[in-house]
Write a structure and sequence with these properties.
Layout lengths: L1 H8 L2 E4 L4 E4 L2 H33 L3 H12 L3 H21 L11 H6 L10
Antiparallel strand pairs: 1-2
Helix pairs in contact: 2-3, 2-4
Length: 124
């Protein structure tokens, strides 16, 4: 599964007898980090917000709030990962259907200079 996702992001994968080499480009790294990993991590935050924080704040008693938090903490790791994967997938599909994603890389040399960053660090 990971190999398929990395190839879909634009990475080249070479299999050897005992290892793999993953050949990346700035574009393939951007695809992985910006369009898949970031939405996945946001999915974890949304899961916590929707399934723990909001319900515990709406609880009528401290005991009920504590119970909701315990229940969330006991949630299986794989369930949390599946929620985040699903969130990232749905996020990407929703915004790519609207032609919002993927968007072109932004490069503003004047802005980088104003931050005292060397524009050469960001030009590919």
């Amino acid at each position: 599964m990971a190999k398929v996702l990395l190839e879909k992001d634009g990475h080249k994968i070479e299999k050897f007898k005992r290892s793999y080499d993953i050949i990346t480009t700035p574009e393939s790294l951007r695809n992985t980090q910006l369009f898949r990993t970031l939405p996945h991590e946001i999915g974890h935050a949304v899961d916590y917000l929707e399934n723990c924080l909001k319900p515990s704040l709406a609880a009528k008693t401290d005991e009920e709030s504590a119970s909701i938090k315990r229940l969330y903490r006991s949630k299986a790791y794989l369930d949390k990962e599946e929620y985040a994967h699903r969130y990232a997938r749905e996020f990407y599909h929703k915004y790519s259907a609207q032609a919002i994603l993927p968007f072109e890389r932004l490069y503003d040399e004047n802005y980088l200079n104003s931050l005292r960053l060397d524009p050469k660090w960001f030009k590919f």
